[in-house]
Amino acid sequence: MILNDKNIRSALVKKYSSNIDTEIWPEYMMQFDNKFGLVRADLVVINGHLTGFEIKSDLDSVHRLPKQILGYDRLFDYNYLVVGQKLYDKAVDLLPQHWGIIVATHYKNGNVKLYTERSAKINPNDTFKYYFNRISAPDFKKDVLPLLTSKEELKVLKTWPKSAVIEKYYNSIEFTKRNLIKKIVRNSIKKRVRSFN
């Protein structure tokens, strides 16, 4: 029996949707800049972290996987490849060590079985700057901007484009504040996911 994307995706949603305080966003488009272009995440799980899932079914190929890995590694805290036996060897050979591996197979009744062969490790790349790309401009101005600047500057900076504010303050944001901003961004994404459902 051939494992297709739809069946694997359905099994993933079922696996993670039962977790408390978790939202799931299927087919999440990411664009970082004109040079890098678009990357589509097959599934994103949003809870205490952002976790990306790239699905390689029996009907897929691995030729785009290197670019997809770069895209996922610029945004998500954790990343997983979900793959069937047909592409397993080719796909796993391309993965960085911090990526997790979930193997998809069929039960006898035709349902998809997911086995975590390797748990993902925290992404060693600096994803913080790209978190800002995921938050809406109104949420950024309301919840993040007050954390970055004084009350005196706030009124002026609210008129700036988000990208200009990020460039101005990105390097000076301390670790604890970065974690708080990541939490705000995740909550903003969750809110958007709920509005689509």
- What sort of overall outline do the alpha carbons produce when their principal axes are compared? elongated
- In percent, how helical is the residue content? 40-55%
Based on helices, strands and strand pairing, what is the structural class?
alpha/beta
What integer is the average pLDDT? 87
* Strand segment count: 6
Q: State Rg.
A: 18 Å
Largest sheet: 6 strands, mixed
Strand order of the largest sheet: 1-2-3-4-5-6
State the order of secondary-structure elements, H for helix, E for strand: HEEEHEHEEHHHHH
Q: What proportion strand?
A: 15-25%
Report how far apart the termini are: 31 Å
Low-confidence spans: none
Count of DSSP-assigned helices: 8
Name a few traits of the molecule.
8 helices, 41% helix, single chain, alpha/beta, 197 residues, 6-stranded mixed sheet
